[in-house]
Amino acid sequence: MKKFLVLLLLVVLAQTTSAHVLISEVIANPINTESGGEAVELYNPNDYEMNISGYVIATSNSEADATIPENTFMPAYSFYLVADIGWSEEKDNMSWPDADHEETLTLKNTDSGVALKLGDDIIDAAGWGNASEPLFEGEPLANPQQGQSFERKPGMLWPENGNHVDTDDNTDDFLVREVPEPQNSLSPVEGTISSGNNTITLHVLVYDSLPAVVSFVIPDDDPTVPGVQVNPNPGGIREVEVDALIDKKNPYINITEVSITVKDVTLVLTNHDLNNTYSLYKGSFTMKYYDEPGDYPVEIKVVNSNSAVVTDNAVFTYMGLTAMEVDISSLLSSVVPGSSVQIIGDQNMSTDNSTTVRNIGNVPMDIQIRGNDLVSGENVIEISSIDYTFFENDFSNMLAGSLSNSFQTEPINLGFGPYMTNELSFRINIPLDAAQGSYSGDVSIIAVASGK
Amino acid sequence: MRFCILLILFLTSIEFASAQAIGVSPARLDFENAQRQLTIFNPSDEIVYFSIHPEKPWFEFKPSSQGLIHAGGNAKILVRPSSAAQTGEIMIYVKAYNNRTGVPVNLGIGIKTSVKADKPSKITGSFSLAGRKPDKLIGSLIIIAVVGPGLYLWSKFDKKTCPQL
Q1: What is the DSSP letter of A420?
Q2: pLDDT for the residue B151
Q3: pLDDT: is A146 or A307 the higher one?
Q4: Which end of chain B is more exposed for a tag (fewer CB within 10 A), N or C?
């Protein structure tokens, strides 16, 4: 069941307590240039005119970085824009209004702030990062990303209703704008309450309190197949990264946790805040190489500070993988004609001088094996002089034979799991009449998924 | 003395030290007049040369049916039935070659493949290689630099030791 939140009463109360001019928007980290692109917007939240002559903008650069000229008045609910010298030419967006007052203004991108002062009195302040006194109120905002501005609420949350929220805590009072909207004295006035003649117009802002999963992305390893395919990592762990874009829907209610559940394991994702409305959550889960191929559901769960819970589901396909590892790379050593050499297999990949085949995929596998004759100049030893077996070094077993030039399939049906191995033994029988020489040939071992 | 004369030297030693490995995903391919992707993995610690051999010339491979994969990397190959494809089931073999002399033991993967022949479609999409080091871009440049000489060497190597599957 959806819940709704009525907010404005607090907003109205906040407005009624504001009797001074407020800093309503700050552009500290412009895109084009730091010189000429920075600005501080002021707002008169009162229903009467304010004289702001001699007001000072203090920054970390100067206690009086800019001074409002004499005979400057702000009508009720109006704006006043103070900007760095060059604003009219260097502002990020030429459609923005010109400043009411241009003066050299230095706003640092990080760990700084601005204060509006009259004499020694601090009228208002807005700080970000590790701002120092008196350039912030309460908890400073996060450092601005390039192109962003800070706007006092309700601002874009409630257009045309001014910027009057003032609880003396920057984090609560301001929001982050991806697209700034500076206003000057010629901009339309914006007020929240019109009172008089014994009537009060009460504006009620209603938010949906349930967050929404905008997107939930698992990277697709195979775009030729519909859906999301995830490849195993042969013999190892596959780390699968996930991104979830969450719409908080209500800027006054924070997301407390976003988690995913895969294979009955729940993992909490990490928040990478984008703005006041959207949050990007990132994380990863792991798949073992021997996890069975097939479809795996993933549930994403979002909980907000209002205890609302939203879940969503996705499915990925874990691909089948045929993969093997063999601990031998070349056969044969010095051999006497008429003799035979045996290479004993075992089921341990770490032992020397014995051969092992390991399934490092997630499907059971059989083996196809063949070889090419051993050649030394014009002398040939047929490849059939090499015997093999996949069963307990027993060369007369069903899973044994002599190599030939064509593939022979041995249905060893080696299963998949944490350490699934099979022995492979060779016996090399050199004919008595073999000529002396250095012979070369090759042996091929092919893994094939068992069954149809 | 006579025993020593009869001794024939094949090669220096049996090489157990370095394990070889290869993997291919998916484990099975089903075509219904569509292209599919093969991912060939090289989980070993050495660079490998691979080549793809269908039992019948029913397929086209993009960008190529052969190439190099760095240690820990993979190659993504697009596969589609050619105009010669017929309805049926065959094997596509992916074979990896090591650079051992003498009698190398080479590994491969066989993929059971079913085809439902119809009009062939054009290959679309992209090809990528991924490895631990170097990164994709450098890996691609290395492929360009190495595949040419590699193919030349391979043509010689092939005659001696690795006839076609």
Answers
A1: E
A2: 53
A3: A146
A4: N
Closest chain B residue to the Cα of A325, Cα to Cα: B21
pLDDT at B16: 55
Residues B128/B76, Cβ–Cβ less than 8 Å: yes
The torsion defined by the Cα of B150, B153, B156 and B161, in degrees rounded to 10, comes to -70
Cβ neighbourhood burial of A40 (10 Å; 0-12, 13-18, 19+): buried
| Whole-number Å distance between alpha carbons of A415 and A446 | 16
CA distance A423 to chain B (A): 14
Q: Which of residues 112-151 of A touch B (CB under 8 A)?
A: none
Tokens for B74, please give them: 């993979």
* Cβ pair B35:A323 closer than 8 A: no
Residue A434 DSSP code: P
DSSP 8-class letter at A384: G
**Which tens digits make up the pLDDT trace of A406-446?**
999 999 999 999 999 999 999 989 899 899 888 888 999 99
What percent of chain A stands above pLDDT 70?
91
Residue ranges, chain B, pLDDT below 50: 1-13, 120-121, 125-139, 142, 157-165
**Residue A331 and residue B14: Cβ atoms within 8 Å?**
yes
Q: Closest Cα of chain B to A373: distance in Å?
A: 9
A319 and B104: CB-CB below 8 Å? Answer: no
* Cβ pair A332:B103 closer than 8 A: yes
DSSP A227: S
Q: In the sheet where A39-43 sits, what is the strand order?
A: A101-102, A79-83, A39-43, A22-27, A149-152, A174-177
Check B109 against A221: CB less than 8 A apart. Answer: no
Flag if B8 and A430 touch (Cβ within 8 Å). yes
Q: Which of A109, A118, A114, A116 is nearest to A127 (CA)?
A: A114
Partner-chain residue, chosen from B25, B78, B161, that has the shortest CB–CB distance to A321: B25
CA-nearest of B63, B56, B126 to B85 is B56
**In which order are the strands placed within the sheet that holds A340-343?**
A340-343, A425-429, A386-389, A400-402
User: What values do phi and psi take at A390, rounded to 5?
Assistant: -105, 15
Name residues whose C-beta falls within 8 Å of residue B80's C-beta, 6 or more positions apart in sequence.
B31, B34, B35, B36, B59, B60, B62, B120, B121, B122, B123
Q: Which residue type sits at A402?
A: S
CB contact under 8 A, A372 and B13: no
Distance, CA of A287 to CA of A309 (rounded, Å):
27
ipTM over 0.85: no
A164 within 8 A of A21, measured Cβ to Cβ? no
Please name the residue that has the structure tokens 């009620």.
A204
Contact A373, A382 (CB under 8 A): yes
Pairing of strands A365-376, A408-414: antiparallel
More confident residue, A154 or A138: A138
Residues of A in contact with B100 (CB under 8 A): 329-330
Which residues 296-325 on chain A approach chain B with CB closer than 8 angstroms?
319-325
